[in-house]
Amino acid sequence: MNLSPTRKILNILVATLVLGFFGVVFWPSITSPIRLWLYCANITAGEKAVTAVSQANENGFQVASPTSNSVRIYDMASLGRVGCLISTNDAGAVIKAAMELSD
């Protein structure tokens, strides 16, 4: 199969554009769990939950409605599938922060 040089260049250009499109569309869903994992790993026990929530807002994460002793932080780029569950005591201090999958 002999393709003209123009046709070869056109095929390479179309393939590059298609792969670039899928890369732009899916890249946030690939990197989002990594960013959230790094955020969750840096939360220390004893830190105020209010501080952790404000840091989550600064990093662009969403905060689910907190319950009495836990707060769930997630990133919309992961479609809410990956979250950081922060457990707190009655004084509002962090007991532990752990990643969770909603699948």
Structure write-up:
The structure is a single chain. The protein is about 45% helix and about 20% strand. The chain is an alpha+beta fold and about 100 residues long. It has a domain at about 30-100: Beta-lactamase Inhibitory Protein, Chain:B, domain 1. Strands 1-2-3-4 form a 4-stranded antiparallel beta sheet, covered by helices on one side.
Question: How would you summarize what this structure contains?
Answer:
The protein is α+β, with helices and mostly antiparallel strands and 103 residues long. It contains 2 helices and 4 strands; from the N terminus they run ααββββ. The protein has a domain at 32-101: Beta-lactamase Inhibitory Protein, Chain:B, domain 1 (2-Layer Sandwich), CATH 3.30.1450.
Which characteristics define this entry?
103 residues; alpha+beta; Beta-lactamase Inhibitory Protein, Chain:B, domain 1; rod-shaped
Portion in strands: 15-25%
| Broad structural category | alpha+beta
| Total beta strand runs | 4
Task: Describe the strand arrangement of the main beta sheet, using strand numbers.
Answer: 1-2-3-4
How far apart are the termini?
Answer: 47 Å
Overall pLDDT level? 88
**What is the second-level CATH architecture of the domain at 32-101?**
2-Layer Sandwich
CATH class wording of the domain at 32-101? Alpha Beta
Describe the biggest sheet? 4 strands, antiparallel
SSE series: HHEEEE
Tally of DSSP helical segments: 2
Residue share in helices? 40-55%
Predict the CATH topology of the domain at 32-101: Beta-lactamase Inhibitory Protein, Chain:B, domain 1
What Rg, in angstroms, do the CA atoms define? Answer: 21 Å
| Low-confidence residue ranges | none
Query: How would you sum up the global shape?
Result: rod-shaped
